[in-house]
Amino acid sequence: MADTQNAAADEPTAEEIAAEISEQKAVRLAKRDRLNDGADLGGGAYPVSLPITSTIPEVRDRFVGLGVDEQSGERVGLAGRVVYSRNTGKLCFATLQSGDGSRIQAMVSLAEVGEESLQAWKELVDLGDHVFVEGEVITSRRGELSIMVSEWRIAAKAVLPLPNLHNELSEETRVRSRYLDLIAREQARRNVIDRAKVNASLRTTFASRGFIEVETPMLQVMHGGASARPFVTHSNAFDTELYLRIAPELYLKRAVVGGIERVYEINRNFRNEGADSTHSPEFAMLEAYQAYSDYHGIADLTQQLVQDAAVAVSGSHVVTWADGTEYDLGGEWARISMYDSLSDAVGVQITPETPMARLKELADAAGIEIDHPLPGKYVEELWEHHVKAHLVAPTFVMDFPLDTSPLVRWHRSIPGVVEKWDLYIRGFELATGYSELVDPVVQRERFVEQAKLAAGGDPEAMRLDEEFLRALEFGMPPSGGMGMGIDRLLMAITGLGIRETILFPLVK
């Protein structure tokens, strides 16, 4: 115990760490001034350009077969961030890192650069600096690919020290200072690359099916397309209240009315709600609509989109999460009924005709607190409580209560439900899909019911959108539609939390 207490006492306090950083910053700023004042030091602390001929990844690929303690006879000029440095009498070593994490060793010797340049290196170059080096590609006696430097310059002076790259960054630092996370951690860099691969795969799959990508407004005079609380702002130019969009749905449907029969958008949505491991107030969303399809066809499309994205990232439908777990996204995914699966879970038959009083009894028995006027809300909450956690494999949950889905077509054969599914992967909702409601008269009735809920104080209820209804009155073909969170898709493929899949998440 005494040793533990002594070790804790030896740990620097936050104030001591801050003081040390402040002192290091002052030293580095003095070096910056010296670089800017010295015309003979290669163009200052922040030169506008450098004679770069290669990148670190390119050099590593080109000279992969170079033997131990061998010279290539080829000269390159490249730049990287100093992440390791060791200075000796006549020879200095530095490890340079590129943006993708590739590294190469730079060797600065008295024989190659001269005494003045070697001394300047020792005095001016710090960990975290970007430096340019030019010289011959060689391997060291230990076989490490290196540049025998004949000329060097500071490419960008770092005036703050890097954190210790041998220690794992705290989650707080990773989220708040993602730039440090990208420097220090391979997984952070891989997340950015994986996200780009996923977006490229989505676009490729859509293109193969004849879909057209569009952009719709993020500032809207009327929020709609989902049940969610919006962010509100004010336009000085129009002197009106505007909303950050909660979904692009109503505009994409206008595009279908106009004849863009296969349309999609990948862009940002904003919902003024809670934040947790699967929710962010700002998130990337994919929505797509296909004329002359339905919720079965759009489920087929969604399965292909997810499976193609998995292959793009991992080369297989079987993905490996960050913790090493393997998860199979392949095959045909199960499709289960919400009402039937809930009935099986509670041991009694639940249907759209089940009285509200009975639903309340079941909620009370399960310890679920619900205060809502719609029976369908009780059904959904009961289902989440009893069934959701048991869904391990990818599963489409089909046929939702009519009263909670105001933009969805009623079921063609089952009264009281709508043709809607939610896709669950890893136990969380990844996507939702509909047979779209295209009857303008019924849609108006649904909007009126939503307006009553809004008037009663429901902040998530939709408003009556006359412009959207007018578009529907010109005729929208029967269609299937889907929405999927890009951040959650990355969660399903990588096994990471939402704050890891978003490059710069919103934090307090």
Automatic annotation (TrEMBL):
UniProt remark on cofactor binding: Binds 3 Mg(2+) ions per subunit.
GO annotation, biological process: lysyl-tRNA aminoacylation
Record-listed E.C. numbers: 6.1.1.6
Catalysis: reaction(s): tRNA(Lys) + L-lysine + ATP = L-lysyl-tRNA(Lys) + AMP + diphosphate
Cofactors demanded by this protein: Mg(2+)
Entry GO CC: cytosol
Annotated binding of Mg(2+) 1, by residue: 422, 429
Subunit structure: Homodimer.
Entry similarity comment: Belongs to the class-II aminoacyl-tRNA synthetase family.
Protein's UniProt name: Lysine--tRNA ligase
Designated gene of the protein: lysS
